Amino acid sequence: MNNKEFISELARQNDLKTGEAQQMMNTLISAMGDAFLEGDAVQWPNFGTFEVKKKMERIMVNPTTGLRMLVPPKLTLTFKPSALTKGKIRKGGNDNG
Predict the structure, then answer these.
(1) How far apart are alpha carbons 67 and 23 in whole angstroms?
(2) Predicted TM-score of the model (pTM)
(3) 10-residue block means of pLDDT along the chain (97 residues)?
(4) Long-range pairs for 29-37: beta carbons < 8 A, 24 or more residues apart
(5) CA of 78: how far to CAs of 13, 16, 27, 64, in Å?
(6) Contact (CB, 8 A) for 41 and 11
């Protein structure tokens, strides 16, 4: 599902105009981005948790040259699905059994 299809479905399910649904998504993404910049996790009940994690620096070896290089630390965005979301995916999206 691409962005346009997602916005259309969001608008349909919530009886909104497409522009209103797009604005809702823009606001949501902006608020999540602000939370990530503050170092906060964003939890959606029955869906999962988005969190910024710091990867420590490490030493990497180039397999071709054997040269060792230091990879600097970096921040990455992670997602951990809830048990309910994992269960739905395992069942192929079916809610019943």
Answers:
(1) 49
(2) 0.70
(3) 93 94 95 94 94 94 94 94 91 65
(4) 36/77
(5) 28, 31, 20, 31
(6) no
